[in-house]
Every structure is written in structure tokens, then in C-alpha cells.
Amino acid sequence: MHDYDLILGPLISLSCVAIGLVMLFNGGHHSETKVASILSISIGIWIISAFFSDLPSLANYSLFLNRLVFCALVIIMSSLLYLPYIFPRQTKPAKYIKWPLIIFSMIFSIYAIVTTGIVEHIEFMSWGTNLVYGKFFPIFYYYAMTAITFSLGMFIYHYIKLDKKERLKIIYFLEGLFIFMIITVLIHTVIRSLAGSDEYYRFGNYSAIVFVYFTAYAIAKHHLFNIRIFLTEIAFSLIMSAIVVQAGLSRGIFDLSVNIVILFITSYGGYLLLKSIRTEIKQKEDLAILAQELKEANEHLKEVDKLKDDFLSMASHELNTPIAAIEGYLSMILEEGMGGKIPEKARGYLDSVFVSSKRLASMVKDLLNVSRIESGRIHIIWEQKPVEDIVNQAITEVMSKAREAKHSLTFEEPKHKMPATWFDITRITEVVINILGNAIKYTDPGGKIVARVTNDEHKIVVSVEDNGKGIPKERQQAVFEKFTQVDVMKDEVKGTGLGMYISKRFIELMGGKIWFTSEGAGKGTTFYFSLPIIKEKPSDPHEGEGLVLK
Q: For the whole model, what pTM was predicted?
């Protein structure tokens, strides 16, 4: 036996056993993983038994060890025979083959150990032991050839029938089997002829590690084990096997002690490495699950939000008609005197109803605007008009409310005419009225409100300044959100909290920007919005539909 055999034999056999245990540890509840583990461990037993049988120091046990080789080979062939029935897909005949095959393998493997039917006796040669086969060796030989041929044929059949993803798993298995078979055939034919003996037969045994590794990888890919952990565990097992072999070959107590220390340190370091990898992967898997759950929750929220928008749109449309009718009849009774003289007490009640109907109409209008904005059913009707005219018109509309509150409402008209630009007159008027209305509502009686219009080369800026209650700093970020009112005002002023959200969206649809400044509660507020100066009318894909959509 050569010196390299003293290292390769134990190292490869321990590696096969280690890979089998890694597979069993990672997925032993799967049938194909159990069979692949048995296959790998049996190959390790086969290699180590053949290795020890050639050691002169174990000559007395050589016959038993050689018979143990064939015991392991029987289990290997039975595993190969059964594996195609359960990998990569479970087939129906598997359950009828399992127990007969197990019973046959047990009987045949025991027979190989305790009788002379497979190995009659051995002859000691300079390179190791030469086997003299018994009369039942041909049965083993044909069984082995049948198992290999059947397994190979079945996997090729699976390869043809299965889809691309499952084919890849079979390719790994077949690659390992072909490499193992080619090396074994070469050694037992070409190398044997050149050497004139079986001196190098062990290299055929050693090549089984390739088959074991490819089979393990195919099984791991099939069950979606985490390949990173799986390969790390196998690499760690190979390293540990090498250290164990090195320790076994130690010369003297000192070398043995050093190797034992190295083995301990490596074991502990490997344990920490595997633990950290498992923890990291577990965290990533948890994050992936959370991300999926979050994605599903977002999809659900989108559906709920769409249902909400659809409901608001439907409800707003349905409410609009009766509210308009109520407003119309009340206006005819109170303002036009239809129906005759109304008692003062009744008039007071009707006035309250009229005010409430107007507020309700305003709320429905806001809800309709939100619904149309969020469903993309609002577009801009581009028209050209001086912005200062819009501000004047808006002030005229809200002046009566300002006088009721005893406010001073003024417009500091620009000294120079503003550049002409394109915008939606109706929407901008609504924005200005909304900002002025907020200034009137949120300023104590006798307040001062000033509107201004300025410009630079690129934009026109409209501002409304008041000396009212101001906006608390902790609430300033929420001003342009839906259903938001400032804390200091919400108990005193009723509304939907949609006005500024709608104004912001209108301005953004026209390419502008809206913002405000406020030093805090009680220090007044100035709202601004800007419009870009557009020299040519923007294209409108809904040209001609404006009256309907508007």
C-alpha cells in the first residue's frame, strides 16, 4: 500500500459518511434523502472496509473486511435500484417495491458476510489482498449490473419525460454516476492491463466521492434545502475528515496533541460559522415572509382604497341631486318669497336648514373632487386669463363672509401686469376661494387678510396672508393630507378637511406648487401657490370633452 493511500482511503470514506449524515440531518423525513444518505454512508463503509482489508496489521481480519465490502455493495446496489422510484418524483410502484427490496438486501448482505458464497478466501499480495470469489459471486455480479443498468435507464427515462427544471436535478445525479463509472471501468480494464494486477483498484473506489457529492447536490436542489448551508456543512465535514485522518497518522504524542487541539478549534469555529449562517439565512427568510405578507397587505389595502373611492363617487353622485333640489326650493322660499309670508320663527329654522344644505353641498363637492382626482377622471381645461382677475373674482365671492366676521380683506394689486399664462380658470378660482375661506374662518373677528400676486421669469405666485390663529408646528406636515384639520381649529370650525388636499392636487395637475409659512399657533399664516408661465396652450387629449368631464 502506498503512502498516499493512508491519507486518501480514510479521508474519502469519512467524507462519504459525513455527506450522508449531512443529508440525513437536513432532510431525513424525505424518502429520497433517506435512501441517498444510506447510499452515501454505505459507499463510505465500502471504501474504508477495502482500505483496512489491505493493511498488513489487520491481516487476520482481512477476509471479514472483504466480505463487509460486498455487504456494503449489496446495500449500495439496492439503493440505486430503489432511488429512481422516489426521485425526482414519487411513483406508485415504490411502496410495493420498498419492503421486498429491504428484506432481500438484508438477507443477501448477511449472506455475503457469513458465507463463502461471494468471497471464498483471499490471497495476500505485495500490493494488498487478491480475492477468490465463491460460486454465488455471479449472482452478485448480475444483480449489481442489473441495478446500475436499471437505475441508469430509469433516470434517462425520467430525463426525457420531465420538465426542464426537474431535468437539471437528474443531470447532477447522472453526471456523478457517469464519472464514477468511467473511472472505475478505466481502472479495472486499462490500468489493470498495464499494471498486470489490481494494485490500483482503490482509485476506482475513491472516485465514488464524485458520485456521492453530485447525488447529494441533486437531492438538496430537489428539496430546496438552502444550498449555502448545505455546501458549507459538506465543506466543513470534509475539513473535519481530513483533520481526523491527520490525527490518526500522528507520529508521537506531541503531533497527536497538536492535531487534537486543531480538531477542537476547527470544530468550534465551524460550529460558530454554521450557526451564524443559519441565523443569517433564517433572518432573510423571515424578512422574505414579512415582505410577502406586506405585499399582500398592500394589495388588499389598494383594493379597499379602490372600493372606498368607488363608494365615495357613487354616494356623492347620488347625494348631489337631492341636495341641489333642497337648496333650490329653500332659495325660492327664502330669497324669492315664493309660498307667501313666512313666520319669523319658521324663517329662522329654514335659514339654518339652508346654511346646512350649502355646507352639505360643499362637502359633497369636495368628495366628488377627491373621487375624480384619485380615479384619474379629472383633467385640466386650459384657458388663458390674467391671474389677478381670478383673485379679484374670488375676493368678490367671499367678501360677504369677511364682512360678517368684521375682517379687513384687501388685494394689493401688482404694479405691473402679470404675464399671460395657461391654466384651468375654474380650478384656480376654487383654490383661491378655498385659501381665502380658510383665512376668514381661522382668523378671530376683526382680523386682517391680504392677497398678493407676484411673478418672476418662470412663474406667477399668489399669496394670502392673515393674522389669524396660525398652524401648530407639530401639525404643519399634515396640512395637505386628506381629512386633516388643524387641532386648534377643529372644534370651532366644521369641514371635511379636504380643501387643502384638493387645492394641492389641482395646482400640481397644472405643474405648480403650493406651500405655506406659519410661526406657530396664534402667529398667523401665509399660503402661497405658484403657476408656471406657459406661453403656448398645452395639448389636451380630451379636447372637446371638457364640458362633460368638468
A: 0.48
